[in-house]
């Protein structure tokens, strides 16, 4: 089963995937969370959190569980976003 978005002419529209760090940054801003405090709660360095925001570091299973606890957003959701992004990047590297 594939997820497809079609235009009015029934042609597939490619949706560009984005790194889950972008969503994490938006979520933290919406909640008024401070990066330094969130990094402490996640037991990571603030610099590493910045790298996640920038898409330079990926969300691991361990971090996904910590995010689940901090933000009440399922670890599976975070890992799913990471996987979708990874597949998107790999697919475009093979073209």
Give a quick rundown of the structure.
Helices cover 62% and strands 4% of the residues. By secondary structure, the protein is mostly helical.
Task: Write a structural description.
There is one protein chain. By secondary structure, this protein is mainly alpha-helical. The chain has a single domain (19-94), classed as lambda repressor-like DNA-binding domains (434 Repressor (Amino-terminal Domain)), CATH 1.10.260.40. The protein has 5 helices and 2 strands, in the order E-E-H-H-H-H-H. It has helices at 20-31, 35-42, 46-53, 61-71, 75-94; strands at 5-6, 12-13. A two-stranded antiparallel ribbon has the order 1-2. Helix 1 (20-31) crosses helix 3, helix 2 (35-42) crosses helix 3 (46-53) and helix 4 packs across helix 5.
List keywords for this structure.
single chain; mainly alpha; 2 strands; 5 helices; two-stranded antiparallel ribbon; 95 residues; elongated; 434 Repressor (Amino-terminal Domain)
Integer count of domains: 1
Strand order of the largest sheet: 1-2
Averaging pLDDT over every residue, what do you get? Answer: 92
The CATH class name reads Mainly Alpha
Taken in chain order, the helices and strands follow as EEHHHHH
What percentage of residues falls in helices of 4 or more residues?
Answer: 55-70%
What gross morphology would you assign?
Answer: elongated
For the report, how would you describe the main beta sheet?
2 strands, antiparallel
Instruction: Estimate the strand proportion.
Output: under 5%
Any idea what the radius of gyration is?
15 Å
| Structural class determined from secondary elements | mainly alpha
* Total number of beta strands: 2
CATH superfamily: lambda repressor-like DNA-binding domains
Q: Termini, distance in Å?
A: 22 Å
CATH topology: 434 Repressor (Amino-terminal Domain)
So how many helices? 5
